[in-house]
Design brief:
alpha+beta; homodimer; Ribosomal Protein S5, domain 2; 324 residues; 2 domains; 6-stranded mixed beta sheet; 8-stranded antiparallel beta sheet
Chain lengths: 324, 324
């Protein structure tokens, strides 16, 4: 091998039942299972080029050299692939996302899913999706879900071997829309990796985790039955449970901005009016408004009228991570 | 007896370790103990006049006839006093507060403390403070703390007889100030009594209650040692724990407004700058900013500059409920 290259794309995902806290931090084995929708329309495209002439890895994000810590995390992930492939060539990695990164839109999920697919392909490996999901998980937990399209469940389990995601329902099962309201594009103060490590400092985390099987079951059923009211209730509850844990960690993690809260309150009000919409919020201030196709245009119009809305992105059920 | 009358005043209180959820709803025996500061400067003044010529109780709040539900709750409380006094005369009750009621400033605490003291006095009873605290508790849980001045602890316990408050430290022990930021004067959507009944629907309430002894101990120590940083940490954590439970109840109780969140975020930032201030929030959108006297003027100035601040009240450690 002299030079081997591959390009892959992956979508981020939004979790209805969220991942927060690890049973094993190094292996990113989560405390509880999670369920998400892969978000088509938003994507990270990553090119990995293994080149025997390179003496170190070079990582570029949106055409700029990545920070030392990001580069180190990418190199560590490439090491996992190099170990399986049985070589030690360094790589050039170029990654580009068409949405704001680090603002609670799971940019690390699409980034590590794309890196895993491009990296293993460039290394000449042909792995099963479940294998790709396991490897992606080691780079960024929720990336294991972005390997798959549609509605995806990550089985928490207890070991490196059995903690991976699988498809719950394909992308054409239910035409939900995600209207992502950007209220702030600043990079969040505390990243998810650090945040996960604080989960256990909250007196509430164990109770949140203990109740997760019930929520997973309810969410699975709501998705399979296309039961929007049930999906809305369990999704908002689960988002609130995660933020309850964040808020009561030491130090306290408060990801919401005043605008975040206003959108939460409005969405709740709109649903009471009969609109099929609910909110869910990741580790950042932006709000994902999940709605049925029928109401999406009307909700988008209402959202755009709210003060403090910097940008609005719209996503539909997306496909699996893939080599271009 | 023909006509017997008494006037009493009582202050509201703000809890550092909060009361949320009952072990026994009818008797208002709480799931966990609580610690508060009685708030001097804010007060409810109540006149109770037992009159053998009346054929029903008449309740006036701020010179207007009270609603049917409020009147019924007051009559029920008078029944407790009439039972002890051994007569059945009806009463005229006139109550007036110098602060907005029903907005998370414990108006029912000062109201039922004043009603208890005025009512028992008008009935010719001479009861010990602990007895008054128990009776007040039956009208409104946190009213049992407003019987006392200064720093007060309500022992949860398990029966009607042993669930009452006591002084932890007198009002001159520590000159803390409470800057109460009113961001909204509307009467809150879900009152505390209904809210307490929902606490058990949250998957987090048991964990919050189980951790309460640790918080009570830490809060007691911080007060006795006048250790502001510790008081600030445990107070904000406890407030966040209560709102975490509210937020994850079914239905979800969201008392915060966008302005509430902004003040929380600012207060946290100011403390990081070295200001001795912390926030705590009851079942409403308004924010209590607890601070030391040294920083109070500077914090008040900063608070008044924030958008959405409708009114700012200032309270100092207050005294026990008393007959005028």
């Amino acid at each position: 091998m002299a030079i081997r290259t591959a390009i892959a794309v992956a979508n981020p995902n939004i979790a209805f039942i969220k991942y927060w806290g690890n049973r094993d931090h190094a292996l990113r084995i989560p405390c509880n299972g999670s369920i998400s929708l892969t978000l088509g329309g938003l994507e990270t495209q990553t090119t990995v080029t293994f080149d025997e002439n390179l003496t170190s890895d070079h990582v570029f994000i949106d055409d700029r050299s990545a920070s030392a810590s990001t580069s180190a995390r990418v190199s560590q992930h490439l090491d996992r692939i190099r170990l399986i492939a049985g070589f030690k060539y360094c790589a050039k990695v170029e990654s580009r996302s068409n949405f704001p990164v680090g603002a609670g839109i799971a940019s690390s999920a699409s980034a590590f899913a794309a890196l895993t697919v491009a990296g293993t392909s460039a290394a000449g490996l042909s792995l099963q999706p479940i294998e790709l999901s396991r490897i992606a998980r080691l780079g960024s937990g929720s990336a294991c879900r972005s390997i798959f399209g549609g509605f995806v469940e990550w089985h928490a389990n207890e070991t490196d071997e059995d903690s991976y995601a699988e498809v719950l329902a394909p992308s054409n099962h239910w035409d939900l829309q995600d209207l992502i309201v950007i209220v702030n594009q600043e990079h969040k103060g505390v990243g998810s990796t650090e945040g996960h490590a604080l989960a256990d400092t909250s007196p509430l985390q164990n109770a949140r985790v203990a109740d997760a099987p019930r929520r997973l079951k309810e969410c699975r059923r709501a998705i399979l039955d296309r039961d929007f009211p049930s999906l809305a209730s369990i999704t908002e509850l689960d988002s609130n449970l995660m933020h309850a844990v964040m808020l009561t960690s030491t130090p306290s993690l408060m990801y919401w901005y005043p605008e975040t809260l206003q959108i939460m309150n409005e969405v709740t009000r709109w649903r009471a009016e009969g609109y099929e919409v609910c909110y869910t919020i990741d580790a950042g201030p932006n709000v994902h408004c999940i709605c049925t196709r029928k109401y999406a245009d009307r909700i988008e119009k209402r959202l755009r009228r709210l003060p403090g809305v910097i940008q609005l992105l719209r996503a539909s059920p997306g496909n699996q991570a893939r080599v271009l």
